[in-house]
């Protein structure tokens, strides 16, 4: 079910905070967006990027930052749905950064589940992925 305007605005605020804290490499601001649950999970773009719990999510962000000189996300499309105190979002956009002195840009997708706890919406699950460049348009698998 499509989220109402108030929920949509709150979820967009979390997404914007996520993007800004990542770009500014502000670990405290980033971690404040995640629920304090042991079963909190985040999948990243790498084969080894399955992070469970806040410590592992923090590790992943710090690893990302240690391997880049700049890294930012710009979502240009999103769809937000909700039921009660749970919301889910799908977003597409561009990742942009600098690695080894070279500027990079890549298509980016994100899905996330948020839960309202008190007055806050917190991330409880997230997944960032890259569309496969080996998969031609119209094909269902990369061959």
Protein traits:
Nuclear Transport Factor 2, Chain: A; 143 residues; 6-stranded mixed sheet
Order of helices and strands: HHEEHEEEE
What's the number of domains?
1
Distance between the termini: 35 Å
Taken as a percent bin, the fraction of beta residues is 35-45%
Task: Give the CATH topology.
Answer: Nuclear Transport Factor 2, Chain: A
Average pLDDT, rounded to a whole number, is: 95
* Helix coverage percent: 25-40%
Rg calc: 15 Å
| Unreliable residue stretches | none
Query: Can you tell me the CATH class?
Result: Alpha Beta
Specify the number of helices: 3
What would you say about this model in short?
Helix content is 27%, strand content 42%. The protein has helices at residues 5-24, 27-31, 54-66; strands at residues 41-43, 50-52, 70-83, 86-99, 102-117, 120-129.
Write the layout of secondary structure elements.
Layout: H1 5-24, H2 27-31, E1 41-43, E2 50-52, H3 54-66, E3 70-83, E4 86-99, E5 102-117, E6 120-129
Parallel strand pairs: 1-6
Antiparallel strand pairs: 1-2, 3-4, 4-5, 5-6
């Amino acid at each position: 079910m499509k989220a109402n305007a108030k929920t949509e605005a709150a979820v967009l605020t979390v997404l914007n905070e996520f993007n800004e804290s990542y770009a500014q490499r502000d670990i405290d601001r980033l971690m404040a967006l995640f629920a304090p649950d042991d079963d909190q999970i985040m999948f990243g773009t790498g084969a080894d990027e399955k992070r469970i719990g806040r410590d592992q999510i923090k590790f992943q962000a710090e690893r990302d930052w240690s391997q880049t000189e700049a890294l930012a996300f710009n979502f240009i499309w999103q769809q937000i749905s909700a039921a009660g105190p749970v919301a889910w979002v799908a977003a597409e956009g561009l990742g942009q950064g600098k690695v080894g002195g070279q500027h990079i840009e890549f298509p980016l997708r994100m899905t996330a589940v948020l839960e309202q706890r008190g007055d806050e919406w917190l991330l409880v699950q997230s997944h960032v992925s890259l569309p496969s460049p080996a998969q031609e348009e119209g094909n269902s698998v990369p061959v």
